[in-house]
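Q: I'm writing a short methods note and want an example of a predicted protein-small molecule complex. Could you take the sequence and the SMILES for S-adenosylmethionine and return the bound structure as tokens? Please keep the output block clean; save any remarks for afterwards.
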Amino acid sequence: MKYVRDMPFKEFVDSHHKAVDEDLADLRRSNEDDSVPLIFTETEEILGLLIGLTHPSKILEIGTAHGYSSLFFAKKLPDARITTIERNPVMAEYAGAEFASREEGERIDFRFGDAEGILDKLVEDLSDADDSEKFDFVFIDAAKSHYREFFEAAEKICTGNALIVCDNILLNGWILEADGKDAKRHRTSIKYMKKFLEYLRQRDDLEVTILTGADGLAIIRFINEKQR
Ligand SMILES: C[S@@+](CC[C@H](N)C(=O)[O-])C[C@H]1O[C@@H](n2cnc3c(N)ncnc32)[C@H](O)[C@@H]1O
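A: Understood, no commentary inside the block.
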């Protein structure tokens, strides 16, 4: 099995990638040098296209790491507000410092803790909210076995025309491994990611676009947006 990050296509796409600015290019380089997880350049470009077309004003991100993708959203959309969630204290410390050292960080509402608890609180806080307070773009990029829980919470606090984008649905290629070392080591993520994709497929109220570029993305929208 050829894994996504080894594919010659990645190098090809990287060589054509244009960073939003020098600051973000430096942050990508330092994240990559330190093996900090962050979105592939191809994922960044797809996200850029989607937010460029839909102009979200409130973005929810689950999985901050060092804050690269949050800063990407904030730089691309100068009027948007971003709420981002991270549970790892070391990652959170770095992300907090990255946000504090930039003007864009003022529009980033950084929540430290496990996404499940933080999402419960957001659902409670936004239960009577109108669309102007809800999220119109959601990016799910955290624990791969919990995408369904993240998705079900996110859909309660987003607008009818929101897009929900889930990263890494190919799990670095492991999703197609029937057996072998990687299939065993990642069996929980594989099992839950497959269940999540099947769950999405069974929902008649969703339009789900699966892309196999980068590490795979699911882009989800609500078909009857007016009824939500
Ligand atoms: C792939 S990284 C995020 C990368 C980031 N979106 C970027 O592109 O810069 C995933 C992050 O999600 C965090 N995470 C995983 N499960 C989580 C959970 N249940 N709650 C909050 N954060 C979680 C991990 O600690 C990790 O830092």
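A: Remarks, as requested: Residues 37-39, 63-65, 68-69, 85-88, 91, 114-115, 141-143, 146 surround S-adenosylmethionine (CB under 6 Å). The first helix runs from residue 8 to 16.
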